Amino acid sequence: xxxxxxxxxxxxxxxxxxxxxxxxxxxxxxxxxxxxxxxxxxxxxxxxxxxxxxxxxxxxxxxxxxxxxxxxxxxxxxxxxxxxxxxxxxxxxxxxxxxxxxxxxxxxxxxxxxxxxxxxxxxxxxxxxxxxxxxxxxxxxxxxxxxxxxxxxxxxxxxxxxxxxxxxxxxxxxxxxxxxxxxxxxxxxxxxxxxxxxxxxxxxxxxxxxxxxxxxxxxxxxxxxxxxxxxxxxxxxxxxxxxxxxxxxxxxxxxxxxxxxxxxxxxxxxxxxxxxxxxxxxxxxxxxxxxxxxxxxxxxxxxxxxxxxxxxxxxxxxxxxxxxxxxxxxxxxxxxxxxxxxxxxx
Length: 346
Prior knowledge:
Blueprint: E1 10-12, H1 14-18, H2 21-37, E2 40-44, H3 50-64, H4 68-71, E3 85-87, H5 101-110, E4 116-121, H6 141-167, E5 182-188, E6 191-192, H7 193-197, E7 203-206, E8 212-217, E9 223-226, E10 234-236, E11 244-248, H8 250-255, E12 265-267, E13 275-278, E14 290-293, E15 296-303, E16 310-311, E17 331-332, H9 333-342
Parallel strand pairs: 1-2
Antiparallel strand pairs: 2-11, 3-4, 4-5, 5-15, 6-14, 7-12, 8-11, 8-15, 9-10, 9-12, 13-14, 16-17
C-alpha cells in the first residue's frame, strides 16, 4: 500500500521519539488531528523492531497450527473476567454496546465471529495471571511473548505522552503505569467468499473499549473502518509495511469528551488477491470451484488505564465552569472495562 491509498493518516513517530520540543509538538498535533478525524493513525518508525513483529507472526502461525486438544491445554476461562488463554472459533462474539443477556445470547448463536485467539498480559498482573500451554507443547512460545510485551507497552506509553503534549495536560502515561494490557494473537481460518458476501464477518463491527489499540496485520487484508462522515459507508484499511495501526478506544473517547473518535471497525471480505479457488477433489478437477478467503493473522495490543483511574473529561476537552459540556459520566477504568469484557463471552 502507498501512502495515498489509505483513509488513515500516516505519521512518522521517529520525530516524537528523538526530536526536539517543536518536532514533538508537531507529531503530537498530527496524531491529535488523526484521532479527531478518523480515530485511527498509522505510525511508521514507531520503535518496535520489525524483526520482533515478524517473529511474533511466526509464533502465532505455529501456535494456531497445533492440534485443537493441544491448544485447549491453555483454555480461556468461562466468562469475561479472566481474559487470558486460548479461545476456539465461536467462543468469543464481538458486539457493539450490547449488554442485555437475552440479546447477547441471541447474537452469540446467530452471528459468531469466525476466528480463534490467544491472549496474554503483563507478567506482573496478579488479577489476570497468564495461561500458557505447557513448554513441551511449544518450546519458546511463552518466552518470546513475555519478551515482546514490554516493547508494545513502551510504545503505548510514548503515545500517551504525545496525546498529553497535544492537549497541554500533565503526562497521561503514569495513569497506565501498571501496564495491565493485553497482547492478542488472532487467526481467521479460511472461509467461503459466499459466506462473507451473505453478511458473515470474520469479526463483527465493533469499537475497542480500552484507551488505545496497536494493530499489526498480515498482507491478506479485510479490515474496514466506518466512515465517520458518511453513515453506512465502510472504507478499506490496507496493511502498511513496517507500520503499526493505532486506534482510539471507547474509554479514551470518554476521557477526551468525544474529541477523539472510537471508530467502529470490522473484518470482512479482503481484496481479490486474498481469494483463491478450491475445487472439490483437488486441483485439476475441471469446472468452477468455490472461492475461499485464505488464513488471516493479526496482532492487536489492547491498552487501558490502571483500574482505579477515574475517567472524566480531560482539561481542554470541555468548557471550564460549564459542567453541562461534559458528555459522559465519570467512571473508573476497571468498572467500565469489566462491563465491556463481560459481554464478550458466555
